[in-house]
Amino acid sequence: MFEKVRDVIVDTLGCEAEAVTREATLTEDLGLDSIDAVELNIALEDALGAAISDEALKEMKTVGDRLLPGEGRLRGGAP
Questions:
Q1: What does the angle CA 58 – CA 7 – CA 63 come to, to the nearest 5 degrees?
Q2: Which of 20, 39, 43, 53 is the most buried (most CB within 10 A)?
Q3: Predicted confidence band at 22 (pLDDT cuts at 50, 70, 90)?
Q4: What's phi and psi for 40, nearest 5 deg?
Q5: Would you place residue 39 in the very low, low, confident or very high pLDDT band (cuts 50, 70, 90)?
Q6: Is the per-residue pLDDT at 77 higher than 60?
Q7: Are the C-beta atoms of residues 26 and 58 closer than 8 Å to each other?
Q8: In which element (H, E) is residue 46 found?
Q9: Phi/psi of residue 26, each to 5°?
Q10: Whether 61 contacts 18, CB under 8 Å
Q11: E strands within 15-64?
């Protein structure tokens, strides 16, 4: 699951795959801005088939926040 999320982030933000770690912050480390956030959210929903609520999206600060530890699914997405 991490690899799929990483690939979507790389494709959407144009960053290097090596920069996308679970600990990488979306805004500071990867340069995510508000427009990128919308595009990334749509891309992840399309790629993974899970919706992300606005509330959950606001809480996501790192790449790892996009995943539920040990469950391999998006936070806020359908089980």
A1: 30
A2: 20
A3: very high
A4: -65, -40
A5: very high
A6: no
A7: no
A8: helix 34-48
A9: -65, -40
A10: no
A11: none
Helix (H) or strand (E) holding 75: none
CA gap 48, 39 in Å, rounded: 14
Q: Say if residue 45's pLDDT is above 50.
A: yes
Q: Which residues pair with 74 in a beta bridge?
A: 67
List C-alpha distances in Å: 19 to 42, 52, 62, 79. Answer: 21, 23, 12, 28
| 29 pLDDT higher than 60 | yes
- Written as one letter, the residue type at 69 is P
> Cβ contacts of residue 48 below 8 Å, gap of 6+?
4, 5, 8, 73, 74, 77
Calculate mean pLDDT across residues 46-71.
Answer: 76
Longest CA–CA separation in the chain, Å:
30
The DSSP letter of residue 10 is: H
User: CA 39 → CA 12, 32, 36, 71, distances in Å?
Assistant: 7, 10, 5, 24
